[in-house]
Amino acid sequence: MSRIVDATPSTRCSPLTLARAGLRLSRFLLLLLPGLASSPAEAHKPSDSYLTLSVSGQSFRGRWDIALRDLDFAIGLDANGDGEITWGELRARQTDLAAYALTRLAVLADRRPCKLQATSHRVDTHTDGTYEVLYFDVDCAAPPRVLGVDYRLFFDLDPQHKGLLKLEAGGATRSAIFSVSTAEQQFELAQVNRAGQLLEYVREGVAHIWSGFDHILFLLSLLLPAVLIRQSGAWRPVAGLRTAFLEVLKVVTAFTLAHSITLSLATLGVITPPSRWVESAIAASVLFAALSNIFALVDRSRWAVAFAFGLIHGFGFASVLADLGLPRAVLLLGLVGFNLGVEAGQMCIVACFLPIAFALRTTWLYRRVTLLGGSLAIAAIAAMWLAERAFDIRF
């Protein structure tokens, strides 16, 4: 194991090296900000659909929950353009809607395609809005031993879209997540591969934290001052790497512990606060964390802020697993894997951030441009998110 050695403010680094490091860190923040500014109020909640297949013999049923906002973007459901999708407008497009969705889904029994036929429609409410529920029959030539699923919904419009599958067969329930890189998957119906399921949820947890811009900005806002200390009304560089590392460790540990608690409670259905409240509180947490860097609202107790607001972020993390509606046995597996993935993604961010920030901590570039300028930009974006989420204002 490598040993951490303290470094002091007098550690020698060439101006060229510091400039290059500063440019890398600034470029990283600049690449994040344009995408964040254009994100919708549900920036935290990615585009998902929920597919259920209940396999029993050669003919079985499917259910597909697809967000109306995604369908409206893809095929246009709001006929009069008033911003509201009525039941009449939805019913008028049900044939087109079913054709659009089912041409982007293929089910295969032992590599032979099955026939899909829409049977009925209804609407349902998930944590992030209203969904079209499409019921369909699956007719295969023979009872499948290996079921193949080829999922292509919205990938041409939104590469970040995910399809969450609940597969019921032989008295067991398993899950899978479809993305652009895992659009085709096969399932041995005679066995349930728990290790494969766990790995799939770990991957989804990593993807979720990396695409959850509000979570990233909250974490970065708390980490930016970790290599500095407030003395006599000004930011000063910390003496050594050990001090900065311990500060980062306290912040990350507090955030992890807090969001793990509420992620578990929400996923298991113990506490389920309204999505709009959660998303608004998450935006407010980002705003507070950024403003605290500008006005020195919090100094060495950032871990307490990380814990307090981490409880709110945990409810946001839980939205994907809660909406999937898995049985308890599979839900627990998904909860463990998803949480492990979130932590892995979070540690990757910390591992990239800390060495560069520590190298730059003695420069005006870090204190003025990265800390203050970055915090101002984050505060502006968070304020926009808060207005969108809390007051339904669109920018």
Q: How is this structure best described in words?
A:
- This protein has 395 residues and is an alpha+beta fold.
- It folds into two domains: 15-43 and 212-391, no CATH class; 48-203, no CATH class.
- The protein contains twelve helices and twelve strands.
- The strands form three sheets. A six-stranded mixed β-sheet has the order 5-6-2-1-8-9. Strands 4-3-7-10 form a four-stranded antiparallel β-sheet, with no helix packed on it.
- Strand 3 (105-109) and strand 4 form a beta hairpin.
- Helix 5 crosses helix 11 (328-360), helix 7 (241-267) packs antiparallel against helix 11 and helix 8 runs antiparallel to helix 9.
- The longest helix has 33 residues, at 328-360.
- It is elongated, with a radius of gyration of 24 Å.
- The N and C termini lie far apart (50 Å).
Strand order of the largest sheet: 5-6-2-1-8-9
As a percent range, the share of strand residues is 15-25%
Label the overall shape.
Answer: elongated
Terminal residue distance: 50 Å
Helix-strand makeup class: alpha+beta
Indicate the mean pLDDT: 84
What Rg, in angstroms, do the CA atoms define?
24 Å
Number of helices: 12
Largest sheet, in brief, is: 6 strands, mixed
